[in-house]
Write a structure and sequence with these properties.
The complex is a heterodimer of chains A (254) and B (320). Chain A is mostly helical and 254 residues long. Helices cover 78% and strands 0% of the residues of chain A. Chain A contains 10 helices and no strands. A 6-stranded mixed sheet of chain B has the order 6-7-8-3-9-10, sandwiched between helices. A 4-stranded antiparallel sheet of chain B has the order 2-1-4-5, with helices on one face. In chain B, helix 3 crosses helix 4 and helix 3 packs parallel to helix 5. Chain B starts with a strand and ends in a 6-residue tail after the last helix. Classes of the chains: A mainly alpha (254), B alpha/beta (320).
């Protein structure tokens, strides 16, 4: 446990030192998006005012999941593929799976920081009226934690499977469709107009994160049923954690 | 003497993850033991299995079969306990690039649960001893090869290990840094630290190690003190003759009859003469060559050395 906490201390020390660039990376994209779709376009009358209610959970979901995924996957790709720096951490008296779990926790913590920064900014810009009950708040916290964990674990799978020279390709080929088909910019329920598409996107774990945030923050809007959201988030989390740690161990050991 | 490293019939075959690759037998049944306080060397060319051996002993590589124990603990079964007892200086620079030199030392000690005051003091002391104090608060990007190497050793010592593993610690260093590294390692060993290092430099193994294991193609070829190993080369002295067109059997036979000659090895256009006396031997060999109209284009005489031993054992030079 000492080693686990010390590793966590090291990672948070580095995050704190690199906080300005981290914040810029995390905040800029959702902020620009919020500004255009949540502020500029509604004023032009191109987008209805109610659209921002739909958008806020999606923006938050994207910021949190993508930052936890990047926080885990990018360093791993560099560590395994090029710098071998991971071997420095593997010298610590802790199991390999312990080192892997610590990486996932750091991803979750970075996602929480991203959420704490993006949430009020997006809210202020879009002026969404949130009336949250206690249940909504509990759902919100649980969904935020589960989604962050899911994508940190997913980041570990990506980070241990992908070679450094493929990373930009993976981000385009994998991440772009995930984002566009992730129900961030439209609610899943509304997809019933294209049934095959509505079912196809269920393969995308990002859908459940965004629908989860929608369910917690704007329960009055159409959203996916609660058991479906939790079931999928937990299921994908277990799958990716298992797969990610297994891959991590096999990359760490020759 | 207490045995702290036990390696018994250790084998490792790398099976490639891609379907097409070929299996590589990196270790083919190696056995040796290292006592507490010993300075032990693994000598061999690149690809001999040195790094694999160190990898297994430091829990980075899983053995295919055989025994590998640190202070009686099986490395594959209880890697975490093994990691507590060892310091590792790998061949590659795997230092934490996000931290400064001093932070690298401090965090490493923290991983091992060294109390705060103690790790501060140790880091200070090691930075001074390794002449890194004035760069302590810099990240390692601009560090020279020698500085990186010293910091890697400093990191390995921060948790006060019982055994230090070094994989090719002086490869890529200039002669001056290499000399300083030798002094440093000798000093650490004199203070009681058990050291196992790998090298493909004979002088390094000869200078530093109390015992040397010579390995090639995953097999142990010889294991003894440097002096004993050198004595085991037949004759000890070696004359290498380069012959235009290659040597014939008659020439080899004639050489064998010369005084002091112990063994003749003829291969392509090279003849190696092992001898226990060197006086007049080269002149006599040249006379024989003259009599048989054999053209010697180059001749080289060397004293008993580990290089000669390696050449004798494998027919190849240690140098690439």
């Amino acid at each position: 446990m000492t080693a686990f906490i010390a590793l966590l201390h090291r990672d948070l020390h580095v995050v704190r030192r690199e906080l300005p660039s981290f914040l810029l990376r995390v905040v800029l994209n959702p902020l620009l998006f919020t500004f255009i779709f949540g502020f500029v376009m509604p004023r032009m009358g191109i987008i209805q005012h109610g659209y921002t209610d739909m958008l806020l959970p999606g923006i938050l979901g994207l910021s949190m999941t993508l930052s936890s995924m990047q926080a885990v996957s990018l360093p791993l790709v560099i560590d395994f593929g090029w710098s071998k720096e991971i071997e420095d951490r593997l010298l610590a008296p802790i199991s390999i799976a312990g080192v892997g779990l610590e990486k996932i926790i750091v991803g979750v913590i970075q996602a929480i920081i991203a959420g704490i920064v993006v949430m009020p900014l997006a809210w202020l810009l879009m002026r969404v009226h949130l009336h949250l009950s206690l249940t909504d708040v509990i759902n919100f916290v649980l969904i935020a934690l589960l989604s962050s964990w899911l994508f940190a674990a997913f980041g570990m799978v990506v980070g241990t499977v992908v070679a450094p020279q493929q990373i930009s390709l993976v981000f385009t080929v994998l991440l772009a469709p995930m984002i566009f088909f992730g129900c961030a910019y439209y609610p899943w329920a509304a997809l019933h107009v294209i049934p095959w598409f509505q079912y196809a996107v269920l393969l995308n774990p990002l859908v459940y994160a965004n629908e989860g945030f929608r369910l917690a923050l704007t329960p009055a809007m159409p959203h996916m049923p609660l058991p479906m959201v939790y079931g999928a988030l937990i299921g994908f989390s277990i799958l990716f954690t298992w797969l990610g740690l297994r891959k991590f161990e096999s990359r760490a050991l020759d | 003497m207490e045995t702290v490293i036990t390696v018994g019939d250790l084998k490792k075959t790398f099976t490639p993850k891609a379907r097409k690759g070929i299996e590589v037998k990196a270790l083919d049944g190696i056995s040796f033991e290292v006592s507490r306080g010993e300075f032990f060397g693994l000598l061999g060319p690149n690809g001999a299995g040195k790094t694999t051996t160190i990898g297994i002993l430091t829990t980075r590589v899983l053995p295919s079969s055989g025994v590998a124990q640190i202070e009686g603990i099986d490395v594959a079964r209880d890697p975490v306990s093994v990691k507590r007892r060892i310091g590792v200086v790998p061949q590659v620079n795997n230092l934490d690039r996000s931290l400064t030199a001093k932070e690298i030392l401090l965090f490493h000690a923290e991983y091992f649960g060294v109390p705060k005051n103690e790790r501060e003091q140790r880091a200070q002391r090691l930075l001074e001893r390794f002449e890194l104090s004035d760069r302590a608060d810099e990240k390692i990007n601009g560090f020279s090869g020698g500085m990186v190497q010293r910091l890697k050793i400093g990191r390995a010592l921060m948790h006060d290990p019982a055994i230090l593993f070094l994989d090719e610690p002086t490869t890529g260093l200039d002669p001056q840094s290499r000399r300083a590294m030798w002094d440093l390692l000798t000093e650490l060993n004199q203070k009681g630290l058990t050291i196992l290092l790998t090298t493909h430099y004979m002088e390094e193994a000869d200078q530093l190690c109390r015992r040397i294991a010579i390995i090639d193609h995953g097999k142990l070829l010889a294991l003894d003190s440097p002096a004993q190993l050198k004595r085991s080369v037949p004759g000890g002295y070696l004359i290498e003759l380069q012959i235009r067109g290659g040597a014939n059997g008659t020439f080899s036979e004639a050489l064998r009859s010369l005084a002091g000659v112990v063994e003749i090895k003829a291969e392509n256009d090279q003849v190696r003469i092992y001898a226990d006396r060197i006086e007049g031997l080269l002149a006599n060999a040249m006379r024989l060559a003259g009599e048989q109209n054999i053209m010697v284009t180059d001749a080289h005489v060397s004293e008993p050395s580990l290089e000669n031993l390696f050449l004798h054992l494998t027919g190849r030079s240690l140098r690439e």
